[in-house]
Design brief:
Strands 2-4-5-7-6 form a five-stranded mixed β-sheet, with helices on one face. A two-stranded antiparallel sheet has the order 1-3. Strands 8-9 form a two-stranded antiparallel sheet. It is about 70% helix and about 10% strand. The radius of gyration is 59 Å and the shape is rod-shaped. It has two domains: about 10-210, Four Helix Bundle (Hemerythrin (Met), subunit A); about 315-480, Histidine kinase-like ATPase, C-terminal domain (Heat Shock Protein 90). With about 475 residues, it is of the alpha+beta class.
Length: about 475
């Protein structure tokens, strides 16, 4: 099968999202710088306006005091009063001056000081006029002190406005530069995004096409595999049938020489009884018992072979009837050992009648065989739960160590060695029959007290009467779903 290409879509998606993120960061940085530049430009423009306003305050103070002194008209003093009331508040409104460079800041503070000085001079002249008259005030004006202050203010204002204009021009140039680069970055980012999108689209198309080809190949391989599995299954079925037939025939053929050995050994014992000594009698007894044991083992193997076949068609069977049939088959052992067998609440289930009869017969035979000195007491009971029926077979026999509760269901597994006759195949057959019906079997036991074997079967094996189509009132049996 051709391996799928490895386009590594995670890496490509990461690149796809990283590029916009990178350009977003670049845009953010550029916009931040542009915003700072705009803010600084606004501050410079506001500062330029404030410088002009400060000069107008100085001019208003000069015009107000000189107009009053020359004409004696108190209306000029309104201009001076306006300057006195607005100057301090306007200086405060100039805002944060910490962002200005040191030279510009020193010049601005010097201008504010000169303007305040010019206003103070005007106020002093007005106070002098009121105290000493117009002549004293004119004499003070002639001294030229106020004129010198105004010349300094005009010179400093021109210098400040020239400096601010230069910085404003620089900020405007920087703004145009940032705008140009912002556009270039946006254009480049858009082109890169288009390239990445096309690249990702082509990669996805390639991956989807490769995946579709791989899926088609996988379907072809699955069809081929299913065909091979079908052929192999048929071969195994044929081989299994041949193997079962071989085991069945071989088991029958093996029993014939065993019967011959056993029969002629018994003839020797009966006809030549007086001619053999005790050792010979003992040896012939070993031959007969071993032949019988071998026959039992072969019969057990035959039973396992039969289990591998399909068995009889399953139909509704009363487990009470199967238990009675098993009791009839074991009648001799029951009477000989004075066994008591009781049952209650056993259901009717759709099972293989012969196989489940064997189940009850094997379990009852074990309960009688592995008894204690007292007479066997066996209780077979059924109980229904939501999903399964549980059949328990409890006895008061020898019991066994719970450690071996799984081992006893293995083939040829025996816990009591040769002290009790048996092949070690009965419980293995029981387990296979139960599992063929979709159930399971387990055991709980205590040595010297007894054992309880549990069989769990699904409730889907229950049988219930339904009405046959076209025959009203005539009951029939169907399997519960």
């Amino acid at each position: 099968m051709t391996a799928l290409p490895k386009p590594n879509p995670r890496l490509r998606l990461a690149v796809l999202f990283a590029i916009p993120l990178m350009f977003c960061i670049v845009f953010f940085v550029v916009n931040t710088v542009a915003e700072r530049n705009d803010l600084q430009l606004i501050r410079l423009q506001s500062l330029n306006s404030g410088i002009g306003k400060l000069r107008s305050f100085a001019n208003d103070a000069e015009v107000g005091i000189h107009g009053f002194l020359i004409t004696g008209d108190a209306g000029y003093l309104a201009t001076l009063d306006g300057v006195n009331s607005r100057l301090d508040s306007y200086v405060d409104l100039l805002g944060n001056r910490s962002s200005l460079d040191a030279r510009l800041l020193r010049q601005l503070e010097r201008l504010i000081t000169l303007v305040q000085q010019r206003v103070d001079d005007a106020n002093e002249l007005l106070s002098l006029q009121r105290q000493q008259g117009f002549e004293a005030a004119f004499e003070e004006v002639k001294s030229g002190k106020s004129r010198q202050t105004m010349q300094q203010i005009r010179g400093l204002v021109d210098e400040l406005q020239a400096t601010v204009s230069t910085q404003v021009a620089g900020r405007l140039n920087r703004e145009r530069y940032l705008t140009r680069w912002t556009f270039l970055v946006f254009l480049f980012g858009t082109l890169v995004m288009l390239v990445v999108l096309v690249w990702l689209y082509q990669s996805l198309l390639t991956y989807i096409d490769s995946r579709d080809r791989a899926v088609a190949q996988l379907k072809d391989l699955n069809l081929d595999l299913e065909r091979r599995i079908g052929e192999r299954t048929q071969e195994l079925q044929h081989f299994n049938e041949e193997l079962q037939q071989f085991a069945y025939v071989a088991s029958h053929d093996l029993q014939e020489p065993l019967r011959t050995i056993s029969t002629f050994t018994q003839l020797l014992q009966s006809r030549y009884k007086d001619r053999f000594d005790a050792d010979a009698e003992e040896f012939m007894g070993y031959i007969v018992s071993s032949s019988r044991r071998m026959t039992d083992l072969i019969n057990g193997l035959l039973a396992l072979v039969r289990l591998r076949k399909s068995g009889q068609p399953a139909g509704p069977v009363s487990l009470c009837e199967l238990l009675e049939e098993a009791k009839v088959s074991l009648q001799a052992a029951i009477r000989e050992n004075y066994a008591e067998i009781s049952s209650r609440n056993l259901p009717t289930l759709v099972v293989d009648r012969l196989q489940f009869a064997q189940v009850f017969q094997n379990l009852l035979a074990n309960a009688i065989k592995y008894r204690r000195e007292e007479a066997p007491r066996i209780v077979v009971e059924g109980s229904r739960e939501s999903t399964h029926w549980t059949i328990s077979i409890a006895d008061n026999g020898r019991g066994f160590d719970q450690e071996f509760a799984e081992r006893i269901f293995g083939l040829f597994q025996r816990l009591h060695a040769r002290e009790v006759e048996g092949t070690g195949m009965g419980l293995s057959i029981v387990k296979r029959v139960v599992e063929r019906h979709g159930g399971r079997i387990w055991a709980n036991s205590t040595e010297g007290v007894g054992s309880v074997f549990y069989i769990s079967l699904p409730v889907s094996l229950e049988a219930r009467p339904v009405e046959v189509a076209g025959q009203s009132g005539m009951p029939s049996i169907s399997v519960a779903p």
